[in-house]
Specification:
The complex is a heterodimer of chains A (410) and B (540). Chain A is an alpha/beta fold and 410 residues long. Chain A folds into two domains: 180 residues, D-Maltodextrin-Binding Protein, domain 2 (3-Layer(aba) Sandwich); 150 residues, Periplasmic binding protein-like II (D-Maltodextrin-Binding Protein, domain 2, 3-Layer(aba) Sandwich), CATH 3.40.190. Helices cover 42% and strands 14% of the residues of chain A. Chain A contains 14 helices and eleven strands. In chain A, strands 1, 2, 3, 4, 5, 6, 7, 8, 9, 10 and 11 form an eleven-stranded mixed beta sheet that branches. The longest helix of chain A is centred in the N-terminal third of the chain and has 30 residues. Chain A is globular, with a radius of gyration of 22 Å. The longest helix of chain B is centred in the first third of the chain and has 34 residues. In chain B, helix 9 crosses helix 10. Chain B has one domain: MetI-like fold, CATH 1.10.3720.10. The relative contact order of chain B is 0.14. By secondary structure, chain B is mainly α. Classes of the chains: A alpha/beta (410), B mainly alpha (540). At the A-B interface, helix 1, helix 3, strand 2, helix 4 and strand 7 of A face helix 12, helix 18, helix 22 and helix 23 of B.
């Protein structure tokens, strides 16, 4: 892809900077390694943080932008707020942004495409890979990452990045526009759109209709009707979030009991991919599951390709089974143009950004003042419980280990 | 070194002469240094694994991971998968090699390409489409109401991985057959040996290093594959690595990867015993071909069937959606010729660099049969046994810490990653062809005053060309299908055919996978034909 000359120069200076920074970080790494029997990890991060501070003072003579931190990037035009703003109310996007996307192209292409069409001077370099892979990759890259921001599928991933000290806070108007249960409380990352977990089922094979499915997630582990025909995918970010939510609502013991019953009593089929699970539920072979716990967009994709497909979704009410989770963005410590990145995020949570993803993905908006219009159930009916998505009682690692200990692994 | 085979007496006499030659052989010393550099380069990512493993904060968890009964079970599953895939690959690959090299099968090059091409299809794509076609509720089921027995679990994984892995054995056995003096077989036959006995006593010992080289690759591929066992619901060693990786516990994933490396080291030592063979030295010569007669029809039918199962089924499943789909368009999956160009460019670069890296290591290991030379050669295999995401993560770290300004700018790191992963494919086949080389030929050239480089270029290289070409083909084909490393290290805008196939598959927009999948097979086949033409004539 051709880059304008000006940007190349910018990138060169940045890279010089990153080189110096990274060499100091790697020295810290080696020191950490040499003196390390325990806590080497901490040493290393300490080193990173230091060089990060140093770097900011150098940033001042960069010249390309007066602002060094995204949090300090004042709105170029209107701020975003709890009343929706249009893209035309916002500042123009001009320059290059590099994005690591854990979301898939079908979910995110439409809005990126629309933004690039809207602004001639905007180039979005988007890399797509698995959400979890990107978390590990960004942590290893540290501040040498080419990414300006990570567009993640779930909050657990963004928290993990933040815990590793590689995210910087967002501007105040962005933080204020998104309710605190949909973002990091201090604004280190924010959700952009939301979804609730669902029950997928094959409407041709399930005896009865949606109303015959329990509205309490706990019953799926005990109701004998689901024996041998239920499935789930335990290795996803949202499933871990679901387990964390269940621990918070029902307690650890009840959660363990639920997992154990799913594995041992219900003989739940365990899938390693959300797509393959939905395909199996839809396919309806003799050995395929009839009911699957998972995100609704997998079913939506199948119906998008083939409107006659038998897969449908149902929802539980006010429990972990209908956990409201977000896809969102976090900004890396080192960005080329903080004002551009800040303004880009404003575009995502502005009215058009929210509407694009409502239409293309069947997702809920996260900004107050923008109402959901579409085929998904009303949130009033489902009443998903509210959580601090950045701080569950049980941390992600322990949720992962709980699943492992109770035999729900793939 | 001593062997009872009739062929070794003559080479035994030359042992002392050769030893004397080699003590003053400066080129060998240079080769030793080059091999050491290559080996150190490709094992460098292992240093990151070791370092990560020292960052572990919860020794009890680590202990549990390494020694729980669950670990024992997945290790057993992995071993079963590895052993059976290897065995079945030999059973499929060796007869196919004999068929395309030794018989009068019509259009041998075409059938060679068909039998080798399954290597360009990622096995999990094969698995998904195979089940979608033949499984309960699949395409055949919904049209005819007929299904085959459920393909899943460990047996399903063994079945599918074999279908996409046997070409390793096929291609290396084929190169070995091409390099051996097949007039020996005629000699055996005139001495009243039946065809099977002639194969067992003459051909097999000659091509054994070749088969062993391919079998080792099949074994390592099987043990390091994640996608297919995951789709089939078989829990193997890589499952536990991915589980920790997905839980962002990279240090534990690294520890498990090291355990996998230890397991593989045992396999490498065992194989070193089988693949080592001093009997294999002959010069290429042609013998009589086996006449198939009416058997050529079932023979062609069998290769066609393999081609249909492994190549036609995936394309057919995707193409079906091209017609049927009513989905919303996804602009960035729209086909561009650039995808194909990128794929071929990267695969060619990887094949070239891997061949260059492989020559010194393989040659040194084959000619200097010392512990050290064998250690260097075995070391190049380690990267192939570790799952791609782990290698890529190590290179992400090393790349950002050594040349951050070039990180994800240009393809250097990506190509290096391919070489780390796939170098053994080139090393193995080059080495087995060097083993088949009769040193008398080389010594003759040296006594005629040819310098070491000239001898290499005019005598050695043409003789080992089949092995070098096959090594390059193996690297080329596996790079064409490589996904995890490509995704993590590609420079911006370097989409490849397989990336698009994967994206289309995971978002269920199958229709976008049809053209790239078809092109993947077509372009790979074409490139292979070109590479195969080099095989006979050497590089001179």
């Amino acid at each position: 892809m051709a880059t304008p000359d000006g940007t190349d120069t910018d990138r060169f200076t940045t890279d010089r900077r990153q080189f110096l920074l990274a060499s100091s970080a790697s020295v810290a790494g080696v020191v950490g390694l040499a003196g390390c029997t325990s806590g080497g990890d901490d040493d290393d991060h300490g080193g990173d943080d230091h060089s990060h501070d140093d770097d900011h003072s150098h940033d001042d003579d960069d010249g390309s932008s007066s602002v060094t931190a995204v949090a300090d990037a004042q709105p170029m035009a209107s701020p975003v707020g709890s009343t929706a703003v249009n893209w035309d109310d916002l500042g123009d996007l001009e320059g290059e942004i590099t994005i690591y996307s854990g979301r898939t192209r079908d979910q995110i292409d439409p809005v990126f495409e629309a933004l690039e069409d809207h602004y001639d001077g905007l180039t979005l370099n988007v890399f797509y890979d698995d959400n979890d892979v990107y978390v590990n990759q960004l942590i290893q890259e540290g501040d040498a990452t080419p990414a300006d921001l990570m567009y993640s599928q779930d909050p657990g991933a963004l928290n993990e990045l933040n815990n590793n000290g590689i995210l910087q806070p967002l501007p105040e108007d962005v933080i204020d526009a998104v309710p605190s249960s949909y973002r990091h409380p201090d604004g280190d990352w924010t959700g952009v759109t939301g979804r609730v977990r669902s029950i997928q089922y094959n409407s041709e094979r399930w005896d009865g209709d949606a109303d015959d499915l329990p509205t309490d997630i706990m019953e799926f582990a005990t109701d004998e009707r689901f024996q041998g025909i239920i499935s789930t995918r335990p290795n996803s970010g949202t499933f871990r979030g679901f387990i964390q939510a269940m621990v918070e609502l029902e307690g650890e013991e009840a959660t363990r009991e639920w997992v154990r019953a799913m594995v041992e009593d219900q003989d739940a089929q365990l899938f390693s991919g959300g797509t393959s699970q939905a395909v199996a539920v839809n396919q309806g072979g003799d050995d395929d599951p009839i009911v699957g716990l998972g995100n609704s967009y997998y079913a939506a994709r199948i119906l998008n390709e083939d409107p006659d497909a038998p897969i449908r979704t149902a929802y539980t009410v006010n429990d972990a089974g209908c956990l409201f989770s977000v896809a969102g963005v976090g900004v890396m410590n080192e960005v080329d143009d903080p004002e551009l990145v800040a303004e880009f995020i404003r575009h995502l949570i502005a009215e058009e950004g929210q509407e694009f993803m409502m239409d293309a993905n069947g997702e809920y908006p996260v900004v107050e003042g923008i109402d959901y219009v579409g085929p998904l159930p009303d949130l009033e009916d489902i009443q998903p419980p509210e959580f601090d998505l950045s701080n569950f009682d049980m941390d992600l690692q322990d949720a992962q280990n709980l699943l492992n200990e109770e035999g729900m692994t793939v | 070194m001593k062997s009872n085979s009739p062929l070794s007496t003559s080479s035994g006499r030359f042992e002392t002469v050769r030893d004397r030659l080699e003590t003053v052989d400066r080129p060998m010393a240079v080769l030793g240094v080059l091999s050491t550099i290559v080996a150190l380069l490709v094992v460098s990512p292992m240093a990151w694994l070791l370092w990560q493993a020292t960052l572990i904060e919860d020794p009890a968890h680590a202990y549990g991971l390494l020694f729980s009964s669950q670990t024992l079970q997945v290790t057993l599953n992995s071993l079963t998968l590895m052993v059976l895939v290897t065995l079945f690959s030999i059973v499929l690959g060796v007869p196919l090699a004999v068929l395309t090299v030794r018989t009068d099968l019509p259009y041998p090059r075409f059938w060679t390409v068909v039998a080798a091409l399954p290597l360009v299809i990622p096995s999990y794509i094969g698995a998904i489409t195979f089940v979608g076609m033949f499984g309960s509720g699949g395409e055949i089921d919904s049209v005819l109401g007929a299904t085959i027995p459920r393909i899943d679990g460990l047996s399903g994984a063994i079945f599918i991985i074999t279908l996409y892995t046997y070409p390793y054995v096929f291609l290396t056995a084929r190169a070995a057959l091409l390099s051996m003096d097949s007039s020996l077989v005629d000699a055996a036959r005139t001495l009243n040996a039946g065809p099977l006995e002639a194969f067992r006593r003459v051909t097999f010992p000659q091509i054994r290093p070749g088969i062993a080289a391919g079998a080792l690759l099949a074994a390592l591929y099987a043990v390091s594959d994640f996608g297919t066992p995951a789709f089939m619901g078989a829990r193997v060693f890589t499952s536990t690595i991915y589980w920790e990786f997905r839980g962002f516990a990279v240090e534990y994933a690294a520890l498990l990867a090291l355990q996998l490396v230890a397991l593989v080291a045992v396999v490498l030592v065992i194989e070193a015993g089988i693949g080592r063979d001093e009997d294999a030295r002959t010069t290429a010569g042609s013998g009589t071909t086996i006449r198939l007669g009416a058997w050529k029809w079932p023979a062609m039918g069998f290769v066609s069937l393999l081609g249909v199962l492994t190549l036609v089924v995936p394309v057919a499943v995707f193409t079906n959606w091209l017609v049927r789909s009513q989905g919303e368009p996804i602009p960035s999956l729209e086909f561009q010729w650039e995808f194909a160009l990128n794929s071929v460019y990267l695969a060619l670069l990887a094949a070239l660099v891997a061949s260059l890296f492989a020559l010194p290591v393989a040659y040194y290991a084959a000619r200097r049969n010392t512990f050290f030379s064998r250690l260097l050669e075995r070391a190049t295999y380690v990267g192939f046994a570790v799952p791609g995401i782990v290698i890529a993560l190590a290179l992400v770290f090393l790349g950002t810490r050594t040349l951050p300004s070039l990180y994800r700018q240009g393809v250097w790191l990506l190509v290096f990653a391919y070489v780390v992963r796939f170098l053994p494919q080139a090393v193995g086949s080059v080495r087995s062809s060097v083993l088949q080389l009769d040193e008398k030929t080389i010594e003759a050239a040296r006594t005629l005053n040819a310098g070491p480089l000239e001898t290499f270029r005019r005598v050695t290289l043409p003789l080992i060309a089949p092995g070098v070409v096959v090594g390059a083909i193996l690297v080329f084909l596996t790079t064409m299908k490589e996904l995890p490393v490509t995704l993590m290290l590609q420079p911006v805008g370097t989409e490849t055919l397989v990336i698009i196939v994967w994206e289309a598959q995971r978002t269920l927009a199958y229709r976008y996978a049809a053209v790239p999948a078809l092109l993947l097979i077509f372009i790979s086949g074409l490139s292979m034909l070109i590479l195969l033409r080099q095989e006979g004539r050497g590089i001179d």
